[in-house]
Design goal:
390 residues, alpha+beta, hydrolase activity, Fumarylacetoacetate hydrolase family protein, Fumarylacetoacetase_C_sf, metal-binding, FAH
């Protein structure tokens, strides 16, 4: 991992928006909630011990603007000290910009990625079979379902046609049926931030990045801001069986979120988030380059619908939650042999970017090679209590 700089982090409009991060403070042996401003990085933990607490405010952006905080340094120096290689453990570094929120993810929310999920299922996790199956699935279903509203009469008619042709799939059920797929991505506090290594299960041989918008939602179901995310996916594990979803999704360092949380304010709103274009770039040590994108405007279910299907009288999240919205990126470009599509290799550098949210940059390693996750909820509570912040 090369040393990161501010240009690898900030949105195109710099610090004009309301930007929130978390920084590890060596002197406190724990994290700080910080406001990233034009004149530096400011510790606001004395007012907001957690990002979750900040997101519970009626107007988080306004509440943060009213707090001066304690300046802990220049953003450039903190960013440069973030990557694990060559990090000075006596100086601050960036963390993922969330803490107590539950990590949730919506799947199969874009038509093109839905088709790839069907292909994974039929290929039983074997990339060599994918191309032939892709042609057959496209013949049966078509390749443009972008105008099909999930749960509509038209969608239910298509469902019956596919059942009659023995072509129905569990992925089509959540892709065009009335109920969205929403699952728990990873344990609370386990996310890695920008500049960190992201993890792949060491037994996986067919996997891919998933560039996504991550919404931050309060315990009341109010969407308060967003960040970028990589919902790292193992196509071989999930393709073998949907019951292997936990092994396909929840591995050490397999949930990347960052670089910062941008709270909704006059400079960035939910409507802006709905129009977000997210780019993906993968650069391999072997010279391989993959480019892709995901446009939130093409999503099959509105972000508010996905949030409403996540929280309510049936499901509650007292500390709020974050929600990956899914991706339209389809990893079909061949890397090694023709017809076998894309899979990661060690030391791939993955950059997920959006003009309004900056860049989330991670190096891919196997999960057992990534930094162990040892600082959980108990450790956070103990640390904050020792610092007399709670």
């Amino acid at each position: 991992m090369t040393t990161l700089s501010v240009k690898d982090l900030l949105p195109e409009d710099g610090t004009k928006g309301t930007l929130v991060g978390r920084v590890w403070l060596p002197q406190a042996n724990g994290p700080a909630v910080v406001a990233v401003r034009g004149d530096g990085v400011f510790d606001v933990t004395a007012k907001f011990p957690t990002v979750s607490a900040l997101c519970e405010e009626d107007n988080p952006a306004k509440a943060l603007a009213a707090v001066k905080g304690e300046r802990i340094g220049d953003l450039e120096a903190i960013v440069a000290n973030t990557a694990p290689d060559g990090r000075d453990s006596k100086k601050p570094w960036l963390l993922a910009p969330l803490d107590l929120q539950t990590l949730k993810a919506a799947g199969v929310t874009f038509a093109i990625s839905m088709l790839e999920r069907v292909i994974e299922e039929r290929a039983k996790g074997n990339p060599a079979s994918a191309e032939a199956i892709r042609k057959e699935v496209t013949r049966l279903i078509g390749d443009d379902l972008s105008k099909l509203k999930p749960g509509s009469d038209q969608a239910m008619h298509l469902k019956q046609v596919l059942i009659d042709q023995n072509a129905w799939s569990q992925y089509l059920e959540v892709g065009i049926g009335p109920d969205a797929e929403v699952f728990t991505k990873a344990p609370t506090l386990s996310s890695v931030g920008t500049g960190m290594d992201a993890g792949l299960h060491p037994k996986s041989t067919w996997n891919n990045p998933e560039p996504e918008l991550v919404l931050f939602v309060s315990s009341r179901g109010k969407i308060v801001g967003g960040a970028l995310g990589n919902d790292v996916n193992l196509r071989d594990f999930e393709g073998r069986s949907a019951l292997l979803l936990s092994k396909a999704k929840d591995n050490n360092a397999s949930c990347a979120i960052g670089p910062l949380l941008r709270l909704f304010d006059d400079t960035f709103t939910l409507d802006d988030a709905r129009k977000l274009d997210i780019s993906l770039n993968v650069k391999g040590a072997d010279g391989f380059v993959l480019d892709g994108h995901s446009s939130i405007s093409m999503i099959s279910r509105d972000p508010t619908d996905l949030v409403e299907q996540t929280i309510g009288k049936v499901h509650q999240y007292p500390d709020g939650f974050v929600l990956f919205l899914g991706t339209m990126f389809a990893p079909v470009k061949d890397r090694d042999a023709p017809g076998q599509g894309f899979t990661h290799k060690r030391d791939d550098i993955v950059t997920i970017a959006a003009p309004q949210l900056g860049k989330l940059i991670n190096r891919m390693r196997t999960s057992d090679e990534c930094e162990p996750w040892t600082f959980g909820i108990g450790a956070l509570m103990k640390n904050l209590a020792q610092r007399k912040l709670i």
